[in-house]
């Protein structure tokens, strides 16, 4: 595996009032790998994603991408530094059609596209994510899986170095899940680095090179999927003491 | 930019012909109708400028009269000191500075907080101007005696409206305008797409305020006497909102469809029921919000394409461009 570090997180801390959502998180993401961010509900995974993408401001700690400190920058600047994301609850632009949804990702990135060039690039990207037939349908009228595809398409339009997928595979039926896994693998093969928050074990085992497991805001394991899933600490976090 | 394409030349050419024709109106009708025409065009500018910002972002601003009043007051103060074009420049600068201050301090507010703030701002500015006039200049109320005829006012407004429409037309095809639409759809997504949300909102707020300020400045000579109560009358802000909502604030020409019938209606109401104007205005407001949530434009779009939008109509049933 390529060992060059793309993203490095250290001492990351976030409290909401008295609740410590993320506590001294620390991990690295290597160039070209898929990192799974696992943990029981409420363990702080989405908060970590929000801290990385700039949706939330951290109380302490550091986020560094390609050697550049992006801690607590506003979200649009973090986007310009090469990080794109999807949301746990899918967020498309409902009244805009699919082409415009993709153009939203193209028009304000570091090397923006606009006008005819953006239109052509959007159609090409829609084709790549399997939505070319829905190009002129308002995003709000799409099915759930298609909205998820579209949201991914918008993230890809930003040409990110690092893609954050927050439960992107959740809520899909078995055949859609296989399509989804294939799509993510294709992105990895194209060289994209990905952090995915995921509960779907099939997806984690088949996609992730490495997993970081969180519980109650802190990291409790870091290793290959097989290693972390058999770690007693991880089993205890998910299933309680009697199973460890 | 698609500046030289037919889809640009055609509407702009057509608009130019219509505006050229409208410019001859003073030779055709008497002064009563000219005064009505001035009302229509001034409200058309205010409602279109309001919609340029509030339509896509769905931020309901009640600060229209703040900028209108600043424009009018600038003319009252500087009208006899400087040549009129220079006065307009000063008014524009004053409006821009205030809009920048207001924009940067309030556009982080969302929904009802923004509405209340803009409403409070009207009162604040009115009180500050009153205080200044009472304590510093020691004369409440000013006379505006300028050598500007009713027809001059009409032509200036018409020119300003033309500039506004061209600006709006270009904006609708620009990255800035698209950014504003994305912000209106989902501000969080907009940020993660790399849009500097605050800057875009402030830019559009200032642009919209600039046109409102200039309208106030152009209209000032019509009054001959102004004081803070006349210049900063909050009723104007409500009238503009209601007109824009009736027409449909999400389309460039939408507000115009609300301005024409409502200006005529207000004219009848003030003439026939001068003492009940406010309550009738309130009733009109409620009827519009309940019966025509998407405005006249929304009605037309629903009727034109009933099939395509069936799925989305439920989500769109909120009052057109609502506050939250």
Overview of the structural elements:
The complex is a heterodimer of chains A (244) and B (324). Chain A is of the alpha/beta class and 244 residues long. Chain A folds into 2 domains: 1-82 and 161-244, Rossmann fold, CATH 3.40.50; 90-159. Helices cover 36% and strands 25% of the residues of chain A. Chain A is built from 9 helices and 10 strands. In chain A, the strands form 2 sheets. Chain A has a 6-stranded mixed beta sheet, with helices on both faces. In chain A, strands 2-1-4-5 form a 4-stranded antiparallel beta sheet, covered by helices on one side. In chain A, helix 6 links the parallel strand 7 (162-166) and strand 8. In chain A, helix 3 (98-106) packs across helix 4, helix 3 (98-106) runs parallel beside helix 5 (144-157) and helix 4 crosses helix 5 (144-157). The longest helix of chain A is centred in the last third of the chain and has 16 residues, at 174-189. The model of chain A has no long low-confidence stretch (mean pLDDT 91). With 324 residues, chain B is mainly α. Chain B has one domain. Chain B has 15 helices and 2 strands. Chain B has a two-stranded antiparallel sheet. In chain B, helix 3 packs across helix 9, helix 11 (235-247) packs across helix 12 and helix 11 (235-247) runs parallel beside helix 14. The chains are: A alpha/beta (244), B mainly alpha (324). The A-B interface holds A 53-55, 74-76, 79-80, 84-85, 87, 91-96, 100, 103-105, 107-110, 112, 114-115, 138, 140-141, 154, 158 and B 1-2, 175, 178-179, 181-182, 185-186, 188-197, 309, 311-312, 315-316.
């Amino acid at each position: 595996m390529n060992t060059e570090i793309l993203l490095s997180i250290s001492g990351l801390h976030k409290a909401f009032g008295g609740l410590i959502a993320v506590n001294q998180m620390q991990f690295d993401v290597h160039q070209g790998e898929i990192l799974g961010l696992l943990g029981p509900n409420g363990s702080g995974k989405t908060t970590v994603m929000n801290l990385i993408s700039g949706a939330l401001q951290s109380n302490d700690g550091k986020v560094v991408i390609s050697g550049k400190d992006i801690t607590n920058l506003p979200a649009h600047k973090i986007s310009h530094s090469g990080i794109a994301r999807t949301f746990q609850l899918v967020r498309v632009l409902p009244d805009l059609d699919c082409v415009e949804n993709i153009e939203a990702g193209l028009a304000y990135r570091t090397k923006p596209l606009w006008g005819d060039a953006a239109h052509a690039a959007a159609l090409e990207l829609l084709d790549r994510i399997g939505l070319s037939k829905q190009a002129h349908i308002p995003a709000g009228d799409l099915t759930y899986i298609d909205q998820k595809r579209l949201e991914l398409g918008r993230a890809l339009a930003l040409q990110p170095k690092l893609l954050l997928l927050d439960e992107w595979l959740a809520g899909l039926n078995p055949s859609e899940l296989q399509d989804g896994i294939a799509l993510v693998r294709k992105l990895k093969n194209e060289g994209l680095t990905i952090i995915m928050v995921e509960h779907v074990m099939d997806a984690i085992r088949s996609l992730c090179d490495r997993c970081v497991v969180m519980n109650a805001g802190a990291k409790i394991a870091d290793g290959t999927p097989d290693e972390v899933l058999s770690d007693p600490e991880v089993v205890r976090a998910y299933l309680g003491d009697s199973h460890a | 930019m698609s500046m030289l394409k037919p889809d640009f030349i055609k509407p702009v050419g057509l608009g130019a012909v219509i505006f050229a024709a409208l410019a001859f109106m003073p030779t055709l009708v008497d002064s009563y109708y000219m005064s009505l025409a001035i009302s229509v065009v001034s409200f058309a500018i205010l409602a279109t400028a309001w919609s340029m910002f509030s339509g896509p972002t769905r931020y309901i601003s009640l600060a229209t009269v703040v900028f209108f009043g600043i424009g009018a007051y600038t003319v009252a103060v500087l009208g006899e000191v400087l040549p009129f074009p220079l006065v307009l420049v000063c008014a524009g600068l004053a409006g821009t500075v205030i809009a920048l201050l207001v924009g940067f301090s309030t556009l982080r507010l969302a929904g009802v907080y923004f509405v209340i703030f803009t409403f409070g701002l009207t009162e604040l500015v009115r009180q500050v101007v009153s205080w200044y006039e009472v304590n510093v200049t020691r004369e409440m109320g000013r006379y505006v005696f300028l050598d500007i005829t009713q027809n001059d006012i009409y032509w200036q407004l018409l020119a300003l409206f033309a500039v506004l429409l061209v600006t709006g037309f270009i904006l609708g095809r620009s990255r800035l305008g698209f950014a504003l639409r994305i912000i209106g759809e989902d501000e969080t997504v907009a940020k993660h797409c790399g849009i500097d949300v605050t800057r875009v909102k402030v830019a559009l707020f200032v642009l919209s305020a600039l046109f409102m300020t200039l309208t106030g400045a152009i209209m000032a000579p019509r009054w001959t006497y102004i004081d803070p109560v006349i210049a900063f009358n909050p009723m104007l802000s409500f009238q503009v909102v209601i007109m824009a909502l009736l027409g449909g604030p999400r389309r460039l020409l939408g507000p115009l469809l609300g301005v024409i019938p409502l200006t005529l209606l207000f004219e009848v109401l003030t003439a026939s029921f001068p003492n009940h104007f406010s309550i009738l205005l309130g009733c009109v407001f409620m009827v519009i919000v309940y019966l025509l949530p998407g405005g006249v434009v929304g009605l037309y779009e629903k009727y034109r394409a009933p099939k395509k939008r069936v799925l989305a109509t439920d989500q769109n049933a909120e009052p057109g461009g609502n506050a939250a």
